[in-house]
Amino acid sequence: MLPVDKKDGMTTLPPKIKKQVLLENMNINGGINRCVNYNIEAIRPNKHERGITATANEIHMDHIISQNKGEKGTITNAQIICRTCNLNKSYNK
Length: 93
What we know:
By secondary structure, this protein is α+β, with helices and mostly antiparallel strands. The protein contains two helices and two strands; from the N terminus they run αββα.
């Protein structure tokens, strides 16, 4: 069973899978993480603070096919995208 995010009830990717996705992305991109859509460097997020907007190129782990369409949190269904891509994806639903 996958962990459930208490804020929105959606399942999250297990830490082991997140680590695998990060490492695979780094191996493909010469040692740095890149957004699969924009091919820009994606940076690890800082601790979020109230009133401070996160950077646009912050790493977001993403389900390629959404959970509400029956997909699971597996390595084959996970990708790294930047914050901008993830927010745009959410708005376009």
